[in-house]
Write a structure and sequence with these properties.
Layout (H helix, E strand, L loop, with lengths): L1 E5 L4 H12 L3 E6 L8 E4 L5 H9 L6 E4 L6 H6 L1 H21 L4 E7 L11 E2 L13 H20 L2 E7 L2 E2 L8 H10 L4 E4 L5 E2 L2 E2 H10 L8 E5 L5 E2 H12 L5 E4 L10 E2 L2 H7 L7 H21 L1
Parallel strand pairs: 1-2, 1-4, 2-3, 4-5, 5-7, 6-15, 7-12, 8-11, 9-14
Antiparallel strand pairs: 10-13
Helix pairs in contact: 1-7, 2-4, 4-5, 6-8, 6-10, 8-10
C-alpha cells in the first residue's frame, strides 16, 4: 500500500514508518522536522492547509493516511493552550480535508487512553464507553476527545473510512525526554532525585513503541475500518514502581521525593485490549522490565557520548 504519515518524524510516527516499510509498504512522511532515516519526505507544516495540499499533490494517490501531528506532552499543552488546541485540532481537520479533496479512502488517527480519565464511576473501561467531554479536566484530553468526534463526524459525512487508536503511554529509545521514565533515568544518571507527583499510587500501562508500531500496521486491515481500538500496555506500573525500577537499573542509591499532584494528571484505568486482540490479533509483546532496561541503556549511552564530545 502507498501510505502517508502526517507527523511521521515524531517518536511513534518514525517507528511506524519503519514498521510499514519493513512489511513492504511505500511510505511518505509529511512533517516540519526531517525524519532520521532517508525515505520519501515532505517538509510541511500541517497547520498550513495550502502547503499541506501542495505537498500531497506532488505524490501519487495514497491508500491511507496516518495522522500523528499533535502536541502530546502534557506540560506543553498547559504552557501554551492556544497553540496546543490549534495544533491538535487544526492539523487533524486539515488532514481530513486533504483526504476528502484527494479521495484518500482511509485515515488512521492516534488518540490516547487518557480519554478514559473522564469515566469517573469505575476503573474498568473499553471502547464502548460514553466519554463526556465536559468531564475532561486537561487540555490534552479535551483535544483528543474533540478530535475523535471530528474524525467520526467528518468521515461519516464525506464517506471516508477511519480507525481511531487509543494508545497506552509510549516509551522506548528516542521517546520524549519529559516522559516520567525518561526523566527518572536521566535524573538518576545525573545524580538528581526522582520526583513523584502525588502519592505514587497513580499508575500507567506503559507500551513499548515497537508494540505501537505493530498495532498501527495491523490497523490497516479491513476489520479495523470505522472502529475505535485500544492499544494498551501489558502491566499496571505505579509511579513508585517506576522510581524503584530506575533505582534497580542504576545500581546506586537514588533519592526519591514526593511533591503535589499535577492538575488533570491521568491516574490510570484498567483498559481492555479485547478488541485489538479479536480484530487485529494484537497484544503487547514487550514487558516493562525488558523495555525499561532498553531505555536505560539507550539514555546512558547517549549521556556518555555527549560527555565525551
Amino acid at each position: 500500500m502507498n501510505i502517508a504519515i502526517v507527523g511521521g518524524s515524531g517518536f511513534i510516527g518514525r517507528h511506524t514508518a519503519n514498521e510499514l516499510i519493513r512489511h513492504g509498504h511505500t511510505v511518505t512522511i509529511f512533517d516540519k522536522a526531517e525524519p532520521c532515516f532517508t525515505e520519501d519526505y515532505e517538509k510541511v507544516d500541517a497547520l498550513n492547509l495550502k502547503e499541506l495540499d501542495s505537498a500531497f499533490r506532488r505524490h501519487s494517490s495514497f491508500d491511507a493516511v496516518y495522522m500523528f501531528a499533535a502536541i502530546s506532552d502534557s506540560k506543553e499543552n498547559h504552557t501554551d493552550i492556544q497553540h496546543a488546541v490549534n495544533t491538535n485540532i487544526m492539523c487533524l481537520t486539515n488532514t481530513l480535508k486533504i483526504c476528502e479533496d484527494q479521495k484518500i479512502p482511509r485515515i488512521i488517527f492516534s488518540s490516547t487512553v487518557w480519554v478514559y480519565s473522564v469515566v469517573t464511576d469505575r476503573d474498568y473501561v473499553c471502547e464502548e464507553e460514553n466519554l463526556p467531554i465536559s468531564s475532561s479536566d486537561h487540555i490534552y484530553t479535551t483535544c483528543k476527545l474533540a478530535c475523535e468526534s471530528i474524525v467520526k463526524n467528518y468521515c461519516s459525512v464525506r464517506g471516508i473510512d477511519y480507525t481511531i487508536l487509543r494508545y497506552g503511554i509510549a516509551y522506548g529509545p528516542g521517546c520524549h525526554p519529559d516522559t516520567i521514565l525518561s526523566r527518572f533515568i536521566t535524573n538518576a544518571l545525573n545524580n538528581k532525585p526522582l520526583t513523584i507527583t502525588g502519592s505514587g499510587d497513580t499508575y500507567r500501562n506503559f507500551l513499548y513503541v515497537d508494540d505501537h508500531a505493530r498495532g498501527n500496521r495491523l490497523a490497516l486491515c479491513n476489520e479495523a475500518k470505522n472502529k475505535i481500538i485500544n492499544l494498551e500496555g501489558p502491566e499496571e506500573i505505579t509511579l513508585t514502581m517506576v522510581a524503584e525500577r530506575v533505582k534497580e537499573l542504576h545500581h546506586k542509591d537514588v533519592k526519591i521525593e514526593y511533591t503535589n499532584e499535577r492538575h488533570g494528571d491521568y491516574r490510570g484505568k484498567h483498559v481492555s485490549n479485547r478488541r485489538s486482540k479479536s480484530l487485529l490479533d494484537w497484544s503487547p509483546s514487550v514487558d516493562f522490565t525488558t523495555g525499561s532496561k532498553k531505555l536505560y541503556d539507550y539514555i546512558k549511552e547517549n549521556i556518555s557520548s555527549c560527555a565525551a564530545c
